[in-house]
Write a structure and sequence with these properties.
Layout lengths: L5 E10 L2 E11 L3 E5 L6 H8 L7 E6 L2 E2 L4 H7 E4 L11 H11 L4 H14 L15 H13 L5 E5 L7 H13 L6 E6 L2 H7 L2 E6 L2 E7 H5 L3 E6 L3 H10 L3 E5 L2 E5 L5 H12 L3 E6 L4 H10 L2
Parallel strand pairs: 3-8, 3-9, 6-7, 7-8
Antiparallel strand pairs: 1-2, 1-4, 4-5, 9-10, 11-13, 11-14, 12-13
Helix pairs in contact: 3-4, 3-5, 4-5, 9-10
C-alpha cells in the first residue's frame, strides 16, 4: 500500500469511565471505505478524532499523513463531513446554506455561488434550492447534508449514517450518489450499521465492535469464499458420501448442498463427484458469504 488516506496507531479514547476505542490500529488506502459496527461500536468517535474534533486519550491518528492533533485545520481543509444528526438551519434556504458552507471552505463569493448551484444539482435539489430547509423531507435533508460535505471539493468525505431515516427509494438514491463520488475524485468513508449499504458502495471494510477492530481489509477478500452451491435432482446421499471422502465439507438442506473444501478447489471436487456418482443437478454455482455473515462469524469467535 502506498501512502494511506487514514492511519491510526494504538488509538484509544474514553468518555470518563466509558472506553469508546481500544488500541485501534488501522492503515486504510484511498478509495471507498466502509466503517461498520452496531450503534455504540465507536464509529462516530473514530470519525470525530480523524476530523480533529476530539483529542484521543492515547495513540495517534493521521489523515493524508497529517497528525489530527497538531494539524487539525489542514485536515479539515481537505475533508468534508456529513454528520448523522440534524444540523441544518430551518429558516435558511438550501442555496444560502450551501453558499455559506462553500465560503467557509475558502471559496470566493462568485465561485461559492456557482459551486453551490452545481452541487445542489448533483444531489437532485436544483428545484428546491430556494425553499427553507425546515420544510424539507428527511431525504432532502440528507441530500443537503451530503451537498455541504462536498461543496468545497474535498479530497475525502466522512459520511456518518448517510441513509438514516430514509425509505427504500431514498436509500437507493443516496447510495447511488455515494457511489458516484469517486468519479469526482472524492474518497469516501461511510459509517453505517447497515451492512448491505456498505456492500453496495465500498471497496474496503473496517469492522468495529466494542471499540475494537474486528477486521480491516478489501471487501472482496472478506466476503469471497470458495463455496459451491448445488441443487440436485437425484438423491443427495451418494454425492455427499463421495465428497466427504474427498475431504469436502457438505451442508444439506433438502436437495440443496453447500460444499466447501479447505485448501482444495471445491468446483473440481464437485465435478469429479458428480461424474463418479452420475447424480443429476438442476443448478450449480459459486456462493459468496455476505458481509453480515463475516461480521457475525468474526464477532461470534471472540
Amino acid at each position: 500500500m502506498d501512502q494511506p488516506a487514514i492511519e491510526t496507531r494504538g488509538l484509544s479514547h474514553a468518555y470518563g469511565t466509558v472506553v469508546a476505542l481500544h488500541d485501534v490500529d488501522l492503515r486504510i488506502p484511498p478509495g471507498r471505505v466502509g466503517l461498520v459496527g452496531a450503534n455504540g461500536a465507536g464509529k462516530t468517535t473514530l470519525i470525530r478524532i480523524l476530523l480533529g474534533m476530539l483529542t484521543p486519550t492515547r495513540g495517534a491518528a493521521e489523515v493524508f499523513g497529517l497528525d489530527t492533533r497538531t494539524h487539525e485545520l489542514e485536515v479539515r481543509a481537505r475533508v468534508g463531513y456529513m454528520p448523522e444528526g440534524n444540523c441544518l438551519p430551518p429558516d435558511q434556504t438550501a442555496a444560502d446554506f450551501l453558499i455559506y458552507a462553500a465560503a467557509l471552505g475558502g471559496l470566493p463569493s462568485r465561485a461559492a455561488r456557482q459551486r453551490a448551484s452545481d452541487v445542489l444539482t448533483l444531489v437532485g435539489l436544483e428545484e428546491e434550492r430556494f425553499r427553507p430547509l425546515g420544510g424539507f423531507s428527511t431525504g432532502m435533508k440528507q441530500r443537503t447534508k451530503l451537498a455541504q460535505a462536498i461543496v468545497h471539493d474535498p479530497e475525502l468525505v466522512f459520511l456518518d449514517e448517510p441513509t438514516a431515516g430514509l425509505d427504500p427509494e431514498g436509500r437507493d438514491e443516496m447510495l447511488e450518489l455515494i457511489s458516484r463520488l469517486g468519479s469526482f475524485g472524492i474518497d469516501v468513508l461511510v459509517s453505517s450499521h447497515v451492512l448491505g449499504d456498505i456492500e453496495r458502495t465500498c471497496d474496503w471494510v473496517v469492522m468495529l465492535e466494542g471499540g475494537r477492530v474486528l477486521r480491516s481489509g478489501p471487501l472482496a477478500s472478506l466476503v469471497d469464499v470458495d463455496t459451491v452451491e448445488i441443487d440436485l435432482i437425484d438423491d443427495p446421499e451418494p454425492l455427499m458420501t463421495v465428497l466427504a471422502a474427498a475431504g469436502a465439507e457438505v451442508e444439506r438442506s433438502g436437495t440443496r448442498l453447500v460444499v466447501t473444501a479447505d485448501g482444495k478447489d471445491p468446483f473440481l471436487l464437485v465435478r469429479d463427484a458428480l461424474a463418479d456418482t452420475g447424480t443429476g443437478i438442476r443448478s450449480m454455482g459459486p456462493r459468496s458469504t455476505s458481509l453480515e455473515d463475516v461480521f457475525l462469524a468474526v464477532e461470534g469467535s471472540r
